[in-house]
């Protein structure tokens, strides 16, 4: 079993207060709440688990922008892609 590492976060006091209340309502520590959220962000990888590949996680969920879209036009001009 790996030892846990310390992490220092700078958080708005109101956010911290609400996070502590939320963790307490779930009978868990603020540390375990933050650790769980970070595992969700990284794809839920556990020790010894390779996790889910990018393509499996995002496959079929991303769409190619149409050349007619305003954002596509903006980025084309910005990066001189035309």
Summarize the structure.
The chain is mostly helical and 82 residues long. The protein has helices at 13-25, 30-42, 54-58, 70-78.
> What helical percentage do the residues reach?
40-55%
Low-confidence stretches: none
Percent of residues in β-strands? under 5%
| Total number of helices | 4
CA(first)-CA(last) distance = 54 Å
Number of strands: 0
Computed over alpha carbons, the radius of gyration is 20 Å
Give the overall pLDDT as a whole number.
81
Main sheet, how many strands, which sense, barrel? none
Q: Can you write the helix and strand succession as a string? A: HHHH
Specify the overall morphology: elongated
List the keywords:
82 residues, mainly alpha, 4 helices
Structure write-up:
The chain is mostly helical. It has 4 helices and no strands. The chain has helices at 13-25, 30-42, 54-58, 70-78. The model has no long low-confidence stretch (mean pLDDT 81).
Topology:
Blueprint: H1 13-25, H2 30-42, H3 54-58, H4 70-78
